[in-house]
Amino acid sequence: MTESASPVLFDSHGRPLEYLRLAVTDRCNLRCFYCMPAEGIEYVPKQQLLSYEEMERLVGLLAGLGVRKVRLTGGEPFVRRDLVPFMERLSQLPGITELTLTTNGVLTAPHVPALARMGVRAVNLSLDTLDRSRFARITRRDELPRVLDTLYALLAAGIRVKINAVVMDGQNTEDLLPLAELTRELPVDVRFIEEMPFNGGSHEATAATLPWNHRRIREHLEQYFGALLPEPTRPGDTASHYAVAGHAGRLGIIAAYSRTFCGTCNRIRLTAEGSVKTCLYDQGGLDLRALLRGGASDEEVRAALRQAFYQRAANGFEAEQRRPLHQLSFESMSTIGG
C-alpha cells in the first residue's frame, strides 16, 4: 500500500468519505437465505459488469478524492477469475493505504499466502454458525469445513480476522455463544449483525420481525460472559466493540437495521455493474459504467462523484424514505456489495 497526501472529501453533512466497498461480482457460491432466494436469481450479464480495468480507473480517481481504504465484496469475490492479480494492482495505487475483503471463505484458503504477501492485514469472514447441519440449512450448501480451513489459514498467516454473523431468530441464536467463545483462545473479532431486509425477496425482514436487535444481542451475551467492557470507537466504525476479560479476541455488535452509526459513516459503495450507493439503504443512482463507456474524462467522472456525494442522505432512514415506491422491496445483498 502507498501513502498519499490527497485531500479528504466531505459530504454535505461534514462526514469524510475515505472508505470504498467495491463489489467485484454479484455471483456467489452460497445461497444464504437471508441474502438471496434459493433459485431464480437473475445475475447481471457479464458484459454489464465493470471490467477490472474500469474498476482500477475508478479506484484511482476515488483515491485522488480522498478514499484511503478499499474493501472488495460481492457476491463472493473469489468466484471472479483473476481476483488476486487485480488486488495486487489496487494495492499499488497511490493513496490506497488499506486493502481488504469480505469473503464467505469457501474458496479463499489457497489464496491466503498471496493476500499476506501483498499486505492485506485483515479479512472479514462471513460465518453464521459453527454447526455443520445449521450451516448447510442457512447457506443451502455443505461447506463449513472449507470455511474453517480458511479461518485457521488466515490466522496462521498473521491476518486479522473479523467473523461476521447475522443474527436470525429461530435460525442461529443458539450459535451466538459458541461463536463468541472463539474469542477466548483466538485473536479474532466476532461481530454479531442485526438482520437486514436485503434478501432479494427471500423472506420478510422488517422492524416487526427483528426480535434480535443490538440491545437484545448484548443482553444475551452478558447473561453468559458478564458485563461486557465497551472499547473506544473510531469515527466511521459500524460495530460497537467489547472486551471480555481473559479473552484473546473481542466481541462486536453491528446495529445494521437500527442504524445507530450513520452519523459518522465514511463509506460509499460501488456495485459490480458500476452504480454508486452513498448509503446501503438508498436506491443508487449515479451510473459510472455509462460514464466510462460513454467516453467521459477523468474530470467529468470526478465531478459526477462530487455531485453524488453532495446529495448523500443524512442517515439510512432518510435514504430509505427517498427510495421510489417501486423500489421499496429491497434487492439482494449480493447485488449491492456487502
From TrEMBL:
Its cofactor is [4Fe-4S] cluster. [4Fe-4S] cluster 1 binds at residues 28, 32, 35. Keywords: 4Fe-4S, GTP-binding, Iron, Iron-sulfur, Lyase, Metal-binding, Molybdenum cofactor biosynthesis, Nucleotide-binding, S-adenosyl-L-methionine. One of its GO terms (biological process) is Mo-molybdopterin cofactor biosynthetic process. InterPro entries: Aldolase_TIM, Elp3/MiaA/NifB-like_rSAM, MoaA, MoaA-like, MoaA_NifB_PqqE_Fe-S-bd_CS, MoaA_twitch, MoCo_biosynth_MoaA/MoaC, rSAM. The gene is moaA. The keyword Flavoprotein does not apply. The keyword Nucleotide-binding applies. Pathway: Cofactor biosynthesis; molybdopterin biosynthesis. Residues 12-227 form the Radical SAM core domain. [4Fe-4S] cluster 2 binds at residues 262, 265, 279. S-adenosyl-L-methionine binds at residues 34, 75, 126, 196. Monomer and homodimer. This is GTP 3',8-cyclase. Catalyzes the cyclization of GTP to (8S)-3',8-cyclo-7,8-dihydroguanosine 5'-triphosphate. Its EC number is 4.1.99.22. GTP binds at residues 21, 71, 102, 162, 267-269. It holds the Pfam family Mob_synth_C. It comes from the Bacteria. GO terms for molecular function: 4 iron, 4 sulfur cluster binding; cyclic pyranopterin monophosphate synthase activity; GTP 3',8'-cyclase activity; GTP binding; metal ion binding; S-adenosyl-L-methionine binding. Binds 2 [4Fe-4S] clusters. Binds 1 [4Fe-4S] cluster coordinated with 3 cysteines and an exchangeable S-adenosyl-L-methionine and 1 [4Fe-4S] cluster coordinated with 3 cysteines and the GTP-derived substrate. It catalyses: GTP + AH2 + S-adenosyl-L-methionine = (8S)-3',8-cyclo-7,8-dihydroguanosine 5'-triphosphate + 5'-deoxyadenosine + L-methionine + A + H(+).
